[in-house]
Amino acid sequence: xxxxxxxxxxxxxxxxxxxxxxxxxxxxxxxxxxxxxxxxxxxxxxxxxxxxxxxxxxxxxxxxxxxxxxxxxxxxxxxxxxxxxxxxxxxxxxxxxxxxxxxxxxxxxxxxxxxxxxxxxxxxxxxxxxxxxxxxxxxxxxxxxxxxxxxxxxxxxxxxxxxxxxxxxxxxxxxxxxxxxxxxxxxxxxxxxxxxxxxxxxxxxxxxxxxxxxxxxxxxxxxxxxxxxxxxxxxxxxxx
Length: 240
Hints:
Oligomer: single chain
Helix content: 25-40%
Shape: globular
CATH architecture: 4-Layer Sandwich
Radius of gyration: 16 Å
Strand content: 15-25%
Order of helices and strands: EEEEHEHHEHHHEEEEEEHHEH
CATH topology: Metallo-beta-lactamase, Chain A
Number of domains: 1
Strand order of the largest sheet: 1-2-3-4-5-6-7
Structural class: alpha/beta
CATH class: Alpha Beta
Largest sheet: 7 strands, mixed
């Protein structure tokens, strides 16, 4: 699905990942689950591209539902995989997961239980470690197709980042701001809640950094794209 200027959305009802076109090269933004892999070559064929056109994979953070196909893309496309330095070790070891106690407590929620089953079916219980990782830090303008700017927005994980394409009026918010809270099933602008968050207070504080981008379109890691301005999305997330 084309969701913004030369930006395609992949994934399923729970998880989003994206492909950014820039001239004759591509950037993959997050990498879904391992069993989402087939979506990428299918999209590339449909837009007249091949895996060899993928220059980089950018990861907003290290969780398995964003890391899933990163290593396969890296190996098959000879692409670089980039992530914030604070989440790099987890990417190299196949991703990190929430505390087991919190997960068991949340299983009483029907939506959460369904999502956990989906994670397992989509291959999220065993994600390939990324063999080679390049790190970035806050404020960098990345030398990849699309040239997004990095803003470090910790809380969901230590290294959670958003990626901004100012020339396209778009921000990729990963799990720093979503329109589907996979912990509860809540639909609408929100931060992800426990147990899928490391520091809830810090995640809420990071909303100010997201709001400051001033862009019109929010492309989250979970839920539908938001085309009504980042300021309104942040206002609603704070209200929740």
